Amino acid sequence: MRSRSYVVNERALTTLTASQGGYFTSKQAAATEYTAPKRNYHTSLTAISRTS
Predict the structure, then answer these.
(1) Distances from the Cα of 28 to the Cαs of 1, 34, 43, 46, in angstroms?
(2) Does the model's pTM come out above 0.85?
(3) Each residue's pLDDT tens digit in the chain (52 positions)?
(4) Is residue 10 classed as helix, strand or coil in its secondary structure?
(5) CA 36 to mean position of chain CA atoms
(6) For residues 27 and 40, what is the distance between their CA atoms, to the nearest angstrom?
(7) pLDDT number for residue 33
(8) Which of 3, 12, 22, 42 is buried most, with the most CB atoms less than 10 Å from its CB?
(9) Is the distance from CB of 48 to CB of 39 less than 8 angstroms?
């Protein structure tokens, strides 16, 4: 089971991306504790994709 703080952070990022067409910056992700290692992991799974 995921920790409560993880779920809250995931919701915060989801809410943010909804208002930005599904996109977020690495700085915005870090503010919700979605750190670089987590982003890299999910990118490797193709759960998220990088854009320039």
Answers:
(1) 25, 9, 16, 19
(2) no
(3) 556 676 788 888 889 889 999 888 888 888 888 888 888 887 888 777 777 7
(4) helix
(5) 10
(6) 14
(7) 84
(8) 12
(9) yes
Token pair 């490797």 is at which residue? 44
Provide the CB-side half-sphere exposure for 4 (13 A, CA). Answer: 0
| Distance of alpha carbon 46 from alpha carbon 12, whole angstroms | 21
Q: Residue 33, by phi and psi: left (phi above 0), alpha (psi -120 to 50) or beta?
A: left
Asked if residue 26 lies in contact with residue 36, where contact means CB atoms within 8 angstroms, the answer is: yes
**In this structure, what token pair is assigned to residue 44?**
């490797």
pLDDT at 3: 63
CA 46 to chain centre: 13
Locus of tokens 């750190």: 35
